[in-house]
Amino acid sequence: MNTATKSNNFFWPKITDLPSATAASDLGFWAAVAVATITTVFATIALVANTYILAIDAWAYFDAVLFALIAWRIRRRSGAFAVAGLCLFIFEKLIQFSQPEVASSGAVMALLFLLFFINGVRGTFAFHRYSREEAPAGVAQDV
Questions:
Q1: Are the C-beta atoms of residues 141 and 46 closer than 8 Å to each other?
Q2: Please, which residues have CB within 8 angstroms of residue 58's CB and are 6 or more apart in sequence?
Q3: Rounded distance between C-alpha atoms, residue 12 and residue 31, angstroms
Q4: CA–CA dist 124, 76 (Å, integer)
Q5: Mind listing the pLDDT tens digit for each residue in 25-65?
């Protein structure tokens, strides 16, 4: 079966080689970019309105910067930052969903982002495994 015709699940991609590992890793990158962007938008609205929006205030800019840094490092295929992004996202969602006024808002989107962060972790670790396997003998690996 040809790889172009092989069906692939967008939410849980099959990782079989370096290109598929890169694509899975990119899901974590885009999740971190989206979280940083959405957080920045809500923090800006909260700052301008001088209020909390879904438990987000101006301090959320710090989170946005963290997720932007995580996105940059995931794009560079850092497994440690992929894991850090997943853990930070889970930690923040646990805190956010523990507050009664926002307990159910964004649950579906949070699950989608959680899947993307998990795929980012899967992809970055598979990327390093496949890049070691595909490297020609005698060539130094840049890890």
A1: no
A2: 43, 46, 47
A3: 14
A4: 9
A5: 999 999 999 999 999 998 999 889 888 776 777 789 999 99
d(CA 120, CA 30): 9
Q: What pLDDT digit, counting tens, does each position of 51-61 carry? A: 877 677 778 99
Which residues fall within 8 angstroms of residue 141, CB to CB, at 6 or more apart?
Answer: 131, 132, 135
Query: DSSP code of 140?
Result: P
Residue with tokens 């939410």: 11
How many of the other CB atoms lie within 10 Å of CB of 126?
Answer: 20
Q: Measuring CA to CA, which residue among 34, 52, 33, 32 is closest to residue 42?
A: 52
What is each CA distance from 26 to 29, 40, 57, 86, 128, in whole angstroms? Answer: 5, 21, 29, 14, 14
Question: pLDDT at position 142, please?
Answer: 53
Instruction: Name which of 33-37, 74-78, 137-141 the model is least confident about.
Output: 137-141
Can you give the length of the chain in residues?
143
Cα separation, 140 vs 33, whole angstroms: 32
CA 115 vs. chain centroid, Å, equals 8
State the CB neighbour count (10 A cutoff) for residue 72: 15
